[in-house]
Amino acid sequence: MPAQHDLNPVMSVAQVSAMLDEVFPQFNVDRAFEVRDIRPGGCTVRLNAGDNHLRPGGTVSGPSLFALADIAGYVCVLSHAGPDALSVTTNLNINFMRKAEAGPIDGHCRILKLGRSLMVFDIEMIAGDDQHLVAHATGTYSIPPKR
Amino acid sequence: MPAQHDLNPVMSVAQVSAMLDEVFPQFNVDRAFEVRDIRPGGCTVRLNAGDNHLRPGGTVSGPSLFALADIAGYVCVLSHAGPDALSVTTNLNINFMRKAEAGPIDGHCRILKLGRSLMVFDIEMIAGDDQHLVAHATGTYSIPPKR
Amino acid sequence: MPAQHDLNPVMSVAQVSAMLDEVFPQFNVDRAFEVRDIRPGGCTVRLNAGDNHLRPGGTVSGPSLFALADIAGYVCVLSHAGPDALSVTTNLNINFMRKAEAGPIDGHCRILKLGRSLMVFDIEMIAGDDQHLVAHATGTYSIPPKR
Amino acid sequence: MPAQHDLNPVMSVAQVSAMLDEVFPQFNVDRAFEVRDIRPGGCTVRLNAGDNHLRPGGTVSGPSLFALADIAGYVCVLSHAGPDALSVTTNLNINFMRKAEAGPIDGHCRILKLGRSLMVFDIEMIAGDDQHLVAHATGTYSIPPKR
Questions:
Q1: Which residues form the Thioesterase domain (chains A, B, C, D) (predicted)?
Q2: Region B111-136 average pLDDT
C-alpha cells in the first residue's frame, strides 16, 4: 500500500499508555495489553494472552482478539488524531485464521484513512514461534468533532 | 425472512447452560451472560453489563458486545448442531449503532444458514428503557466434522 | 427488532425511480432493478437476474447481489433522508448463503440507524420458488452535509 | 505480515486469463478486467474503469470495486488451489476510502489463509496519479472438495 507516512503521530507510547491507564482504570487490570510502538500511520499493541483469554480447546478466544483489534485502533486514533477519549468504534470485521495459544500476540495496525470524522484501519495479529497470522480485522472509528 | 422453523433445537436452555459452565469455567465468573431462550432457528442470550463492561464515557464496550454476539452464535451452534464444544468463529462483522449503559442487553440471534460445516447467523442487541437496537452483528461458525 | 416506524419516507416509489433514471442513466439499461416498495424505515428492491448476472455454474454472481444490496441501501437513503444523489457507501459486508438462479430476487432492506451523517442498513435477499434467503448484507452510507 | 511465500501458484497469468474467458463468456465483454500478475501467495488484477463503471458524481461505483475484489480473489483461488471453476465467495467485506475516477485501478490481492475448504484473502485497490488507496476488502472463498 502507498504508505501513510505523512500521518505523523502527536502522542508517544508513554503518553498513550498513561492516558489508557487513566481513562480505562478497569481495562488493563492484569497488564494484558501493552502499547509497543507508535509510528507514522500505524502502531503495534501486544496482548499477553493468559488463561482468562482462552476458550475451549486452549486457544485464545474471539473476544480477546477482538479487544486487541479494537484497542489497537483506539491507540491509532489517540496517537494520530489527538487525545480525545471519546472516539468510538462504529464497525469492526474480523477473520480468524489460525489458533493462537497463550502467550504474546502482536497486533500490527495501520491507518487506511484518517478523515475529519472517521478513521479506517486494519490490523494483522501475529503469534507463535513461527509468527503466523492468527487473525485479521478491519474497522472504523468515529472521531467526535473538536470542541 | 423465511423463518428457519424447520431447524429444531437438540439441546435445552438448561443443557446448554450446564455445558457452558463446564467447558468455559473461566468464562462466566460473574454470571454476566445468561442463556434466556432457545427456539427453532434461534436463541436469546443476555449480557448483564456491569462496571467491568464499560469504556470511557460509561457505555458498554465493543469487546463486551462482541462477546455477546460470539456467545449467542455459539449457543445457536451448540443447541442446533449438537454439543460439540470445538466449533469456532471464522468471521464476525459488528456495527455499533447506539450507546448502551450498564444493565441488561438482550441478544436475539437467528440462524441464517446451517450447513454441514458452516453456520451463518445474525444478532440484534437490544437495550434500555426504550429497547433500542444498540448493535447488530453477522458471523460464521465453522463446525468440525463428526467423529 | 424495535421497528423504526417513526422513520417516515419523504419520497415515493415513482419519485425515487425517476431520480435513479435521471442520475444513473447507464445504471439500469435493461431494467434489471425495480424499486418495489418504500415504507417507514425500509424498502424493497427487485433484481430481475438475467444471463449477464450469472457466473460459472449458472448462479447469480456476487457482484450482482452486491449491486442489489448497494442500490437498496441507496433507495433507503434517498427515500428517507431526501433526494441528494451524493450519498456514498462507506462499508458493505455481504454473506452468500445459497445459490440463486436467473429470475427475480427481492431485496428487503431496513434502516438500522439513520443519523445526521451516516445510515446503517441491512438487507435480506430472497429468491426462488421456496423463497430462500440467498444472501444477507449490512452496510453504511455516508450522507453529505446539507448545503 | 509473514509472507505466504510457500504458497506456489499452479497456473500462469495466461492460463488463468484463458480459463476466465472460457468459463465467464459474458464476464469480460469489454476487457474491463485484466490479470496483471500472479505470484506466490498473491495476484494483481486491474479494472480499466470506463463510463459504465461510474456512479453519480463521476466516481467508480461500489459494485465495480466489489467485482474487482471478487475477481481478484477468484484469480488467487484458481491460480493457487487449481483450475476448479466452482469455488464460490461466501463472505466479502469492503471499505470505500477515497473516490476513484475513470481509468486503471489495480487490485493487489494476497492470500491470508489457504485451507482445504476455505481461502481467506484481502485486497488493496489503488488508483490515480498519486496511487491512493481507494478501497480495501477482505473475503472468503469456499473451495469445493476434490472429485
A1: 57-131
A2: 95
